[in-house]
From TrEMBL:
<protein>
    <submittedName>
        <fullName>Biotin/lipoyl-binding protein</fullName>
    </submittedName>
</protein>
<dbReference type="Pfam" id="PF00364">
    <property type="entry name" value="Biotin_lipoyl"/>
</dbReference>
<dbReference type="InterPro" id="IPR001882">
    <property type="entry name" value="Biotin_BS"/>
</dbReference>
<dbReference type="GO" id="GO:0003824">
    <property type="term" value="F:catalytic activity"/>
</dbReference>
<feature type="compositionally biased region" description="Low complexity">
    <location>
        <begin position="256"/>
        <end position="268"/>
    </location>
</feature>
<dbReference type="Pfam" id="PF02436">
    <property type="entry name" value="PYC_OADA"/>
</dbReference>
<dbReference type="InterPro" id="IPR003379">
    <property type="entry name" value="Carboxylase_cons_dom"/>
</dbReference>
<feature type="domain" description="Lipoyl-binding">
    <location>
        <begin position="267"/>
        <end position="347"/>
    </location>
</feature>
<keyword id="KW-0092">Biotin</keyword>
<dbReference type="InterPro" id="IPR050709">
    <property type="entry name" value="Biotin_Carboxyl_Carrier/Decarb"/>
</dbReference>
<feature type="region of interest" description="Disordered">
    <location>
        <begin position="256"/>
        <end position="284"/>
    </location>
</feature>
<dbReference type="InterPro" id="IPR011053">
    <property type="entry name" value="Single_hybrid_motif"/>
</dbReference>
<dbReference type="InterPro" id="IPR000089">
    <property type="entry name" value="Biotin_lipoyl"/>
</dbReference>
<dbReference type="InterPro" id="IPR013785">
    <property type="entry name" value="Aldolase_TIM"/>
</dbReference>
Length: 356
């Protein structure tokens, strides 16, 4: 159990609230993982309340794979962004357009209008399978032939079409014989010492008084040393709930209270910068860049889709926050991005519509 304790949450065990929200256990575990990835597990109750509303908007699809994932991810996005359907996944758009077939019940008129446009209705008379593009199959086959150096199987082609980024990484590793299960290492134990016996020793269990509220905190474990400039993970239990904290060292001190070691700030890693301008395009939650749809120097309109980011197994369209010119593209397909990082930067027009 110690090997998996970092995955423990109050939602991982028996929970009588399932009688109220009636959400399957597998769907709950996915939502927990998604919210933890976005560092927003505190919004779990809101997400559970949002699920029935999204389910109703989509005509009450059965909460089984894949529709349970479609509903769950959209509910999580609605809660994280703070606005319902501010970000709509590609899968929800496909569902509303009829690419998953006819839903059991009527769709929300507001959602249909938001996705298809005013006065338009989805066409459920067409069999979704008939919309498959043979050219896409042939293109995927050629790309896999180049990647693998052999003729791909039909299963590999289908996997690549459905999940291009994951399939490329998976098939490459498998072809090289480097595909191994991720090791689950037990967290290093924290060595405890009697209180007051060692001068300068850090406490492993203590109470924190914060804005008048008292919290009981216990350090459960520390990750192994990571690369220079990378965060180190600490696992602490706050009032019984296990939390993961990422620590970015800036200064280190000798435990006895002596002079600081390495007093200079940790070097800032080059790469994708933090968002700092009104025109910075950011993802709603952590994910991997799938496509960049614009190039530097290209004019864009406010609300235009400029990138696709895969998060929580779903593709999310990322829109331009302002109108202007793409000044700089920081990320590329395959890059991992966080909500506080700029995928690209848009420079606003001047009043005369010229470029600044």
């Amino acid at each position: 159990k110690k090997k998996y304790r970092k995955y423990e949450t109050e939602y991982a065990g028996v929970n009588a609230k399932v009688l109220i929200h009636k959400i399957p256990g597998g769907m709950i575990s996915n939502m927990v993982a998604q919210l933890m990835e976005a560092n927003a597990l505190d919004k779990m109750e809101e997400a559970l309340e949002e699920v029935p509303r999204v389910e109703a908007d989509l005509g009450y699809p059965p909460l089984l794979t894949p529709s349970s994932q479609i509903v769950g991810v959209q509910a999580v996005l609605n809660v994280i962004t703070g606005e319902r359907y501010k970000t709509i996944t590609k899968e929800v758009r496909d569902y509303v357009e009829g690419k998953y077939g006819k839903p059991p019940g009527p769709l929300s008129k507001e959602l249909v209008e938001k996705i298809l446009g005013p006065g338009k209705e989805p066409d459920f008379s067409v069999r979704p399978g008939d919309l498959a593009d043979q050219e896409e199959w042939d293109k995927a086959r050629k790309e896999l032939e180049k990647l693998l150096g052999r003729d791909p199987t039909d299963e590999e082609i289908l996997l690549f079409i459905l999940f291009p980024m994951q399939a490329k990484e998976f098939l490459t590793l498998r072809e090289k014989g480097e595909l191994h299960p991720e090791p689950v290492e037990e967290l290093p134990e924290v060595t405890e010492t009697p209180a007051g016996k060692v001068v300068g020793a850090a406490p492993v269990e203590f109470d924190i008084l914060y804005h008048g509220d008292r919290f009981r905190v216990k350090v459960e474990g520390v990750s192994f040393e990571t690369e220079s400039g990378k965060p180190r993970k600490y696992y602490v239990r706050v009032d019984g709930r296990l939390e993961e904290i990422q620590l970015f060292p800036r200064r280190e001190a000798i435990p006895s209270g002596g002079a600081s070691v390495g007093g200079a700030p940790a070097p800032v890693e080059e790469g994708i910068p933090k968002a700092s301008e009104p025109g910075d395009v950011t993802p709603p939650m952590p994910g991997k860049v799938v496509k960049i749809l614009v190039s530097e120097g290209q004019p864009v309109e406010q609300g235009q889709t400029v990138a696709i980011v895969e998060a929580m197994k779903m593709e999310n369209e990322i829109h331009a926050p302002i109108e202007g010119i793409v000044k700089k593209v920081f990320a590329k397909p395959g890059d991992q991005v966080n909500p506080d990082e700029a995928i690209l930067r848009i420079e606003p027009y001047k009043e005369d519509k010229s470029y600044q």
